[in-house]
Amino acid sequence: MIAIIDYDAGNIRSVEKALQKLGYETCLTREKEIILSADHVILPGVGNFGDAMERLNSYGLIDTIRSTVSRDIPFLGICLGLQLLFEESDEAPGVPGLGILKGRIKKIPDTPGLKIPHMGWNSLKLENDGRLFRGIEDEAFVYFVHSYYLEAADRGIVRATAEYSVTIDASVEQGNVFACQFHPEKSGSCGLKMLSNFVSVRKEGC
Known about the structure:
The protein is an alpha/beta fold.
């Protein structure tokens, strides 16, 4: 069973529908016992970094997420879910993130001819043999909706980048933790393949 963490963020249902389309059993929940008993856990969402951290705290989900990671349950953050895994964000100065991964979320700089938020299809440059991208060709196009981007402290965890005003760390992987700034659930057959690749990851990391 795949637990999808419900913390009142936007775009959660689209992830649920994509996984159900692939034939996987899902549960949209914020119950600790259900999340920690799941085979895989996903933290999706769009919205404000500070508001999201406040909701995670109010629902008691911060410790639950950290316990999920420490138990080696495969964990996937999507869009805002990626950003929350890191230490801090320019969107909410002074608000600490989960700090599970090292790095900062920064504002996409204004660039003539480019709109912010970054909304639409963009190609990926694959790096470091990411497990989410098995069977995916380099320069595959995926769908983004965001105004802030990740700058990871450890380049070794970066599995894909994209170019939009700056180099965006579009996907990272560290042990049982996976995350992507783009929306695989909105990225056509390529994105569905990535979700299937995530579900194929087992607790042992094989």
